Amino acid sequence: MKHLKLFVIATILTISVNQTLVAQAKTVAHVETAKTAHVDVNEIMSKMPAMLEAQKQLQQIGKTYEDTFKTMTDEYQTKLKKYDSEAATVTEKINEERAKEVQDMQKRISDFRENAQKELQTKESDLTKPIIEKVKASIQKVAKAKGYQYVFNLEGLLVAEGPNLTADVKKDLGF
What we know:
Distance between the termini: 76 Å
Low-confidence stretches: none
Structural class: mainly alpha
Largest sheet: 2 strands, parallel
Number of strands: 2
Number of helices: 5
Helix content: over 70%
Oligomer: single chain
Order of helices and strands: HEHHHEH
Radius of gyration: 32 Å
Strand order of the largest sheet: 1-2
């Protein structure tokens, strides 16, 4: 009886393993017969006129933030030097007021830096999201027109023997 149970269990296991292997083989065969290509998204994005314009806008905004930050820190440094040099000649109350003013300036500078970084990141996202979607749509369009089921980004590939659609996508995007 024990031998019969073991035989039945072994048979069931063998059948289920065989079914799993057959399913995996079918999946591998499907992927192997699927047409694949690759594209260099970084090259496309780095040369795309809309992306170059977005980068230019971001640099201008960043420069504005940098200039404001520099003005704020210069003002802070000037006041700090002045207050340090006059500390011995003014009253304790004035020194306390100045210390509070310096702390307030430090906080404003810190808050400005944080807000500027957040605003710059938001602006970058707002500018690049539609560009990325346009590139993605173009890749899908070119792949479909050429009959490819899978298109890989060249950056992550170790071996790229299939066709490179980068030039076709650039052409579709108009540059």
